[in-house]
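Subject: Sanity check before I submit

Could someone independently write out the structure tokens for this chain? I want to compare against mine line by line before I put it in a report. The sequence has 416 residues.
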Amino acid sequence: MSTVRPFFSVVMPTYNRAHLLPLAIESVLQQSVADFELIISNGGSTDNTRDAVAGFSDKRIRYFETEEKLSIGDNYQYALQQANGEYITFLGDDDAFAPIMFERVKRVITERQAQVVAFQYCNYYHNEYVDDDFSYIHPNTLQIPQFTGETLEFKAAEAIKQLFGYHGLNNAERNGKFIIPYLANAVYHKDVFSRIQSKTNNPFAATPADMYMAAAVFYVIDSYFCLDEPLHIWSRWSGSSTALPHKKGNELRKHYEKLLNGQTLQFTPLKSALPHNCSVNAVLQAGNDFQGVNYQSEIDWFLYYKTIYENLMYLKSLGVDITEEIGDFQKVLSQEPVGLRQRVNSEISKFSRSSKRFLRNNLPFVVKPLKKLLDRRNPNKPAVIRGIEGGFNNALEAACFLGKSVAQGKMLRGAQ
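---
Independent answer below. Compare away.
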């Protein structure tokens, strides 16, 4: 094996996704920059994952597998340990990169001497989907956010405030150009992981791991860069944890309880195993690991309870059973100081009386035409492209379509 360090390492943990994995692999091999390695870690699959990888003869692919089944976090950690690249990124085994991703990111790295570059992502819907405002999305559809093509630098302190604000932990003014560096929509210099792992043995053990890592990064760097271009395809399908409408009743809770593997959330007042609360816990866990009690100065617990309640009402509108979570919410809130409890209850009362939120959560048949009207008046609304229009039939083809759209400046904000 060559001792020359590749510029990029793509880390791809996988488990029983042999039917989707080749598309993700191909999206890496089609990159316009060829200086990379692809690390595939098979964490104990029982399907034909090995055969799916063996179908590729590219020497840049490095394949590893374990006899025992690895947890998600352990598989990520094991895969990362194999990476030799100067800059490291991650790709889900059901996702895809636009063919120009390396090219665009390398330009920012070179021009800005960047250690971390985050970029926008798109949603690709394999199955039918109902979005936040009850709009129906057809199968084989790509949702592309508008973009400026600009690169913006964020100092670490401001990035932490933005991240806390995003999760309803403070009232910092939101910057629309702030991009959270999840594992798959960011590229990191290898030294960033060395600094993180000097504080924690396995940063991927948290649930969700990418949210913990996003927070941890801001504690070990001085600044990072946001590239306002969509370069990553995030798959939404019935088998993914993000496809909320497919996890009704108590299925969503069971899914996150399985991810937590018996662990209890340690840093949030509420212990509900639902996506938003788990993400908040991961952010606070990173703060505790890297800042100790100092991170708590960033938190407004009133906003935490307010945001959690609104999120629960949203999940209820999707058909998720929140009976257990509401009970936990009321019990924990009753133990808070009187002043905080009164503020939260007052906000809940206003929420219930709000006709706009009431309609959105309970009368989607009224909201749908209203949303369509508002969308027509919104110059920055995402473009929704069906495969039948864009000529794509899967996530890989959608990524190729995305790459051409970005390169040509389509959906560029402000373009005529």
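---
OP: Matches mine. For the report I'm noting this point. Residues 272 and 325 are 6 Å apart (CA to CA).
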